[in-house]
Amino acid sequence: MQAFVPKNRRPQFELQLKIIDLNNVPLVSGTSYVKWHLPSSTSAEHRGRTSKEIIREHKASWEYEKNLPVRLVIDRNGMLQESEVHFEVMQEYSSGARGERIILGNVKLNLAEFVDGGEDGEATVTRRYLMQDSKINSTLKVRNAKLLLPANIAKSIQDRYIYETD
Question: Which residue, among 140, 141, 138, 158, has the nearest Cα to 149 in the 3D structure?
Fold first, then answer.
């Protein structure tokens, strides 16, 4: 990413993030929570964590919602550059006299994949993501509202984008 990008190539979007649940947790006891952050930003509002929820029947549920402004970069060719959001799933449990904290895994999502010019009617995307860097097959369910492009930027990107047909 370039060090200095003009403001007209960094449009602001509204991200609606919702962390729903974690399933297939191997331990039946303890608590679990999710820490998330946008590595491209140093702003305090671009990081957070869910509450600690008790694991019941190999599942932890949250209804964590966060709405925040996000700036994505448009390169010189009119294409959106990648901007990731990282989720780190933690688990705490008691083993004897003291508690233990382990990282169950993490998930990385590219926010540029959720940008929409506004043509289709589907406003949100809810998916289960298999955790990476993990020894277990737990999945994290996340809902992202599609980020809507301002009209003038959507038109300029569509004009420059070349659709490849197979």
Answer: 158
Count helices and strands (H / E) in the chain. 1, 11
Q: Where are the beta strands (DSSP E) in the chain?
A: 12-23, 31-37, 47-49, 53-54, 59-71, 84-95, 98-110, 115-116, 124-130, 139-145, 147-148
Spatial distance between the Cα atoms of 82 and 99, rounded to a whole number of angstroms: 38
- Check residue 36 and give its pLDDT: 94
Identify the CA nearest to 17 among candidates 150, 149, 148, 142: 142
Under 8 Å CB-to-CB from 98, ≥6 apart: which residues?
Answer: none
pTM for this prediction: 0.80
**Residue 113: what pLDDT?**
84
Over residues 59-70, the pLDDT tens digits come to 999 989 998 888
In degrees and rounded to multiples of 5, residue 155 shows phi and psi of -65, -45
Q: How far apart are CA 88 and CA 103, in angstroms?
A: 7
| Single-letter residue type at 125 | V
Q: Which residues of the chain carry a pLDDT beneath 50?
A: 1, 121, 155, 158-166
